[in-house]
Amino acid sequence: MAKNSVRVTFLGGLGEIGRNCLALEQDGRIVVVDAGLMFPEPNMYGVDIILPDFRWLIERRDRVDAIVLTHGHEDHTGALRYLVKDINVPIYGSALTLGFARHRLTEAKVAKDLTFIEVADGERRQIGPFEVEFIPVTHSVPSAYSLAFRTKIGIIVHSGDFKLDLTPIDGRRTDIARLAALGDEGVALLMCDSTNAEEPGFTASERTVGGALRRLFLERPKRRMVVACFASHIHRVQQIIDVALEQNRKIALMGRSMEANVKLARKLHMLRVETSDFIDIENVDSFEPGEVCVICTGSQGEPLAALSKLSRGDARNFKVGGDDTVILSSHPIPGNEWSVGRVIDDLHRAGTEVIHSGNEPVHASGHAR
Ligand SMILES: [Zn+2]
Fold first, then answer.
1. How far is the CA of 85 from the centre of ligand 1 (A)?
2. If you measure from the C-alpha of residue 75 to the centroid of ligand 1, how many angstroms do you get, rounded to a whole number?
């Protein structure tokens, strides 16, 4: 490798949706950005998850200084539990991103000897051979970052996943001014999120989803509302909670990751809801349908998640039927259309009303058009 050069090595995430992972190298020292997993397609029988090819990194493990996380989605952090078995270096990210990651690593029993280093919005830190700046961006999980690396060849900007939401739920906007200032300074290389990049127009603000949910709830005062979304989408969960509480409904959470993420977000003061607003999922049937809102996992049709179990009548706690409206507050990730379709079919068979992003604006993308 030439003396005044920086090497960028992608271990996943290019030309595919998932397993985002790249290595930035200067003077023989390496910083890893994200370590995500990818979900298999339906015809990949016997395959549970797909990982980046970590062999390249493991061969150079003595030269790796850190792992930097852009945000808390599984396709950016889900492979950490495999990587840290071979490479134990400090992991940097926002409080929420690290909270999600730490929870998964603890579940996998590999978190014990790891070092997590929290960074704040706008912070600059020396990490390995680079000065790294953490620039706030909006996305479908709170506390996401774009990264700017100051290197020997100039500034390298890694956008991370982002959208340009001017009215985000937490008021934390993409720092366009800071990105523009870096542009004025001169950027040697931009690596940019390409999801939706070829779609014209603007991605709707997350706030528009709250309006649609409010209308749908108001039109159905006597029905039990079951809303499925990503457990990491704390702002979506907040909007579902707000709409439910406006109608004096109690909230029941269903799905392990939903319970864990809501707990963490409340601890970090990122979710406004009182303990008395919740009921146990076991007690849902003792309330009138119009008194309850269930928020659950499984919006991607994952076979073992709460919504799939509900759709098959396999859920331990309660069954959905003619009194229920199920809202899939999501859009299938490419490859998941088939499993989502099956869940919708099964719910219809149970006599349940199903609302999804194909018939109501109950989802807004996390990626800029
Ligand atoms: Zn993401």
1. 24
2. 7
